[in-house]
């Protein structure tokens, strides 16, 4: 008898604690007041895809990915009353934050309208409309959509480059501000005009038993520096086609060159970086000694204050304009550091790439000495260059895929993957307008790609294709 009375009291207590929805009628209606349907909808949409699909969605730039985002926004409007009027960008990482920041919505509500709302409300559907969608969804579907960016997977021009060496430590291609391409082929340096497609031979070192190991234009595009196998640095007047001077100082080949105004820095296999002022030759030289093996990468920062150097000792060093010792040293790479590029968009941001045993792109804040994000590219990183117009960069690769990759920064999503070279893509230069790149490889070809192109009209695109025809 006491146990029966206890069970009766428990049923009575539970009956009193039930929500009001559950007591209406003879049906049990669960309460959903604590459910956030916006969050549930979002996670259901995320979890229905595999991890590989989620990874691919970050790299997607096609119309199908944008259609999926638009469809998801449409469903949120109709089911959750989200009130989205524009299609969000599929590349942004703020979708989850936007969903979580929305106010709570009750999916099942029982309301009594005392007075009908006039039709000018955004949430009202016209009585004459044949569409079941709300006005917000109609605005969403009519919102202007940014056209999908398309990067051509084939080069718009291919040039033969006989005797272009397959040597990771050399830098044999550079593009001047005057739209002249300099290429070191064996013992000669050739100039190719992107305006007229005319080819001229600037110099021939075979008479001295020497060969070209690096070329680099000054900022104005009037002078080209030529590094040689014997350790000389020659400076040539491109317009006049004459040698101005020949600098000594290195005891081994000069594989890296970098101009800083009227000063020229050269890196060599003798592990030394020499910096000289070409206006006051012969002048005092600065000897920068910090690498233990060959110097294969040199780049000055856009503000002309810091020099970044990469070496075969897997080190990335940063020098200022006055000290003879490096002010920063980064040792995270596991292979030679040839690929170096300073960001033109963010002060102090430096990107670097490692060789075959490393394969990583790494980013550094040289203002604080802090290592930023990194990513494994899967192949030897041979070159890096930033876009002048957008926060993007291009990398060229060697073993084992020989590809060219375009990246967004800081998300590090791949915008495009270009293939065509059959050997390592060792050489890279950017056009003076910042829209095209040229790549060179041991397959003895130079390939021109529209990678960072601005929006062009059809006539302009056709004129470019007609101008740059394949030369055999």
Structure description:
Helices cover about 15% and strands about 35% of the residues. It has 2 domains: about 65-85 and about 105-145, no CATH class; about 155-450, Methylamine Dehydrogenase, Chain H. It is of the alpha+beta class and about 475 residues long. Mean pLDDT is about 80; it is low at about 20-25, about 50-60, about 95-105, about 115-120 and about 455-470. The longest helix has 18 residues, at about 65-80. The chain has a 4-stranded antiparallel beta sheet, with no helix packed on it. The protein has helices spanning about 1-15, 20-25, 35-45, 50-60, 65-80, 95-100, 135-140, 460-465; strands at about 155-160, 175, 180-185, 190-195, 200-205, 210-215, 225-230, 235, 240-245, 255-260, 265-270, 270-275, 285-290, 295-300, 305-310, 315-320, 330, 335-340, 350-355, 360-365, 370-375, 380-385, 390-395, 405-410, 415-420, 425-430, 435-440, 445-450.
Tally of strands: 28
Strand content: 25-35%
* CATH hierarchy, class of the largest domain: Mainly Beta
Describe the main β-sheet briefly.
Answer: 4 strands, antiparallel
Instruction: Give the CA-CA distance, first to last residue.
Output: 106 Å
- Assembly state: single chain
Mean pLDDT: 81
How many alpha or pi helices?
A: 8
Task: Please identify the structural class as seen in this structure.
Answer: alpha+beta
Helix content: 10-25%
